[in-house]
Amino acid sequence: MNARLFNHLAMGGFGLALGFTISVAGLSNWDEVHRMFSLGLFTSGSAGGNPRLLLAFGGAILLSMAGFRLLARHDQIPVKPIRTGTISGAILFGAGWAITGACPAAALVQLGEGKLVALATLGGILGGAWLHEKARRAFHWSRHSCVD
Known about the structure:
single chain, 148 residues, mainly alpha, 6 helices, 66% helix
């Protein structure tokens, strides 16, 4: 098996594992995500204050980190400085996630689960990317404004 095919299969495997983790853990459920971000403050009963989703979220991050490390084992992953664009982008990403209850990966999982409302989330993601490209050209920002 050549290296390129192996990398594609490995990325697909990690993507499936991440999608499975997101679905099983409940990270594709808006109510669960809201409960996680509000730390269960607005929930009564047995689900209030339950750290299960936060632990699952941490597990998904660890799985992603393992995938990046495995696929970049021969390449050094460069350290990138935090820029102003990084902070504003993170705030917009978090706001979108809080409103829709889904990050881009969770939106794809929601589609796989048959939740058609995820089409609106994906439309917002694609619309935001399109709007960013228009603003980047209008304001003459570099293509990768968050890094050198």
